[in-house]
């Protein structure tokens, strides 16, 4: 079960730090030649979440999550994990994680001590560290994520995905960082048919290692979209007992489609409505923030107990597939239609490595996110933080430029691949990390979609071949034709058709305003009873971060219909940030 932890490594003979939680009942200490290792888990006993091993004299291994070692050599392994290896004889600590860095892990060094934690709050308190104002500004402007490994804690950072860090024990010099993963490093060449065959082989191999060992029901967060139905089809094909959970507007087309997916795969289906019977308190803003340091997507935490009641001890989702398999698409509807018609008639087109101009276009699109959010939401902040956010916009834009350049220089990759990697390692990591961490609270999370070998292949496929899910449609047709025939909510049709037919149907629906309704009814639900007043109160209770008059104006606009409370998660992200900056909560 998910547990917050902080690991402190310091030379022997040094004064030991006070327990972060204020008591030592959940603290383990290990003596290695020349060093002391203190492991604190203030929420649970240390052994309930971390695997701690002493494979040899002078060595200590601490593992969070579930690494999956397959026959293929090399790091990172598949699975979802962070691992610390302390080698006292070599005076070295190695820290590495999975391909996508799905479990947040942070580190800080000061005065010869090294601290590693999955909690920003524990890291701040354990090292008596201050606040990084640029990190705060970026977290606000990007709706909960940053364009680098910068975090809101000063002199600390997040682990990059698929990376190994080597620290010199007792030394404050920055670690040597080596990117281990082979995602977004090349462009694979081959025929569409050969690539579809290879993807199917890799997917089935991933299922063999991730799903086959499970002999208890698998709980699936089932939206009815392409990603979750791919996982549903996989579980059914491997003969697993599947329980699908769908929450939201039970009257929507999307929820009904999720029911069809469950019926087709033989899964037990649990629809959970966001309606008058869904109490505001079930969202448990304070508790989820305390345990997981997030509030996106709170409905997961509120509903996962329904899966547990059905005997599910393992949980899965379609995490990362939209980013690494769905392919980029144009915001311009006409250009998108033209490209889909072209692909349907003539096949995928060749795209070469990104030029300097194309790199700049990718960076500019990302910087536009920060500008837009700063413009529309900075007024909600108390004056000091408002100045921090607006004043740091130029510095945030420079970090975007630097990160795009770093990604582009990693290999001869296309503009779409640059954006894919950026989104995966920053934006998507935010969503995956925060959502899946809620599932870790209730059991084991198993994601065949993040299998190392599959991820390496999908991320290096030609951008033109993947454009707007074209390749994804071919694969799901090959693997699970019955699921491919069920309509996809945002298309209004099944994907057992040509890309041209799918796109023309989409255009026809848009023109006739007959698009299928989605499960999302957050705004409607907020208007029930006193839900809106309770939500507004959460912001007003954080005067250190929010301006009370601006908050009241914002919610008045929502009530009057001038704004929507459903905003892609920004407001819940802002509230999460306020909680993390609240000095009173550092003692939690």
Provide a quick synopsis of the model.
The protein has 588 residues and is an alpha+beta fold.
Give the N-to-C terminal Cα separation.
Answer: 19 Å
Please report which band the strand proportion falls in: under 5%, 5-15%, 15-25%, 25-35%, 35-45% or over 45%.
15-25%
Helix content: 40-55%
**CATH architecture verdict of the largest domain:** 3-Layer(aba) Sandwich
Provide the CATH top-level class of the largest domain.
Answer: Alpha Beta
Strand segment count: 17
Q: How would you characterize this protein structure?
A:
This protein is of the alpha+beta class. It has two domains: about 5-180, Aminohydrolase, N-terminal nucleophile (Ntn) domain (Glutamine Phosphoribosylpyrophosphate, subunit 1, domain 1, 4-Layer Sandwich); about 185-355 and about 410-588, Rossmann fold. It is about 45% helix and about 15% strand. The chain has helices at about 120-125, 135-140, 190-210, 225-235, 255-265, 285-290, 300-310, 320-325, 335-345, 355-375, 385-390, 395-410, 415-440, 450-460, 465, 470-480, 480-485, 500-510, 520-525, 530-540, 550-560, 570-580, and strands spanning about 5-10, 25-30, 35-40, 50-55, 60-70, 80-85, 90-95, 105-110, 115, 155-160, 165-170, 175-180, 220, 240-250, 270-275, 315, 445. A six-stranded antiparallel beta sheet has the order 2-3-1-9-8-10.
């Amino acid at each position: 079960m998910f547990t917050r932890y902080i690991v402190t490594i310091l030379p022997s003979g040094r004064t030991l730090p006070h327990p972060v939680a204020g008591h030592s009942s959940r603290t383990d200490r290990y003596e290695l030649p020349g060093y002391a290792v203190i492991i604190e888990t203030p929420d649970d006993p240390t052994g309930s979440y971390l695997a701690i091993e002493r494979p040899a004299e002078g060595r200590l291994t601490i593992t969070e999550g579930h690494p999956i070692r397959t026959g293929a050599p090399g790091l990172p392994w598949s699975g979802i994990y962070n691992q610390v290896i302390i080698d006292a004889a070599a005076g070295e600590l190695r820290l590495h994680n999975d391909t996508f860095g799905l479990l947040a892990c942070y580190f800080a060094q000061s005065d010869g001590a090294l601290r590693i934690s999955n909690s920003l709050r524990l890291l701040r308190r354990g090292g008596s560290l201050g606040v990084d104002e640029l990190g705060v500004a970026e977290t606000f402007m990007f709706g909960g994520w940053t364009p680098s490994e910068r975090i809101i804690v000063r002199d600390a950072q997040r682990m990059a995905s698929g990376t190994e860090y080597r620290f010199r024990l007792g030394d404050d010099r920055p670690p040597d960082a080596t990117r281990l993963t082979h995602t977004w490093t090349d462009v694979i060449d081959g025929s569409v048919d050969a690539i579809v065959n290879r993807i199917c082989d890799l997917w089935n191999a991933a299922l063999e290692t991730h799903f086959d060992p499970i002999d208890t029901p698998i709980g699936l967060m089932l939206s009815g979209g392409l990603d979750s139905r791919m996982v549903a089809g996989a579980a059914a094909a491997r003969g697993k007992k599947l329980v699908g959970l769908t929450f939201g507007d039970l009257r929507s087309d999307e929820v009904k489609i999720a029911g069809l997916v469950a019926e087709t795969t033989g899964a037990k289906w649990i629809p959970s409505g966001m309606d008058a019977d869904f109490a505001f308190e079930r969202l448990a803003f304070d508790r989820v923030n305390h345990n997981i340091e997030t509030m996106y997507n709170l409905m997961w935490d509120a509903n996962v107990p329904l899966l547990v009641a059905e005997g599910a001890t393992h949980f899965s989702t379609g995490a990362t597939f939209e980013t690494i398999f769905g392919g980029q698409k144009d915001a311009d509807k006409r250009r998108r239609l033209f490209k889909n018609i072209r692909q349907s008639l003539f096949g995928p087109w060749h795209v070469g490595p990104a030029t300097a101009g194309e790199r700049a276009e990718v960076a500019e699109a990302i910087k536009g996110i920060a500008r837009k959010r700063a413009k529309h939401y900075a007024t909600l902040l108390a004056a000091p933080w408002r100045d921090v956010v607006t004043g740091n916009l130029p510095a945030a834009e420079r970090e975007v430029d630097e990160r795009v350049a770093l990604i582009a220089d990693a290999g001869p990759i296309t503009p779409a691949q640059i954006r894919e990697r950026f989104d995966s390692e920053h934006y998507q990591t935010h969503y995956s990390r925060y959502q899946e961490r809620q599932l870790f609270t209730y059991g084991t999370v198993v994601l065949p979609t993040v299998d190392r070998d599959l991820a390496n292949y999908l991320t290096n496929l030609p951008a033109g071949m993947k454009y707007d899910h074209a390749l994804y449609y071919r694969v799901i047709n090959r693997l699970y034709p019955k699921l491919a025939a069920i309509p996809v909510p945002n298309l209004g049709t099944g994907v057992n058709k040509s890309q041209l037919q799918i796109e023309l149907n989409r255009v026809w629906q848009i023109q006739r305003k007959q698009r299928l309704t989605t499960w999302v009814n957050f705004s409607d639900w907020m208007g029930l009873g006193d839900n809106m007043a309770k939500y507004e109160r959460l912001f007003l209770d954080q005067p250190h971060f929010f301006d009370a008059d601006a908050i009241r104006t914002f919610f008045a606009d929502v009530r009057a219909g001038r704004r929507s409370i459903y905003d892609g998660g920004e407001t819940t992200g802002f509230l999460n940030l306020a909680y993390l900056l609240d000095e009173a909560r550092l003692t939690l």
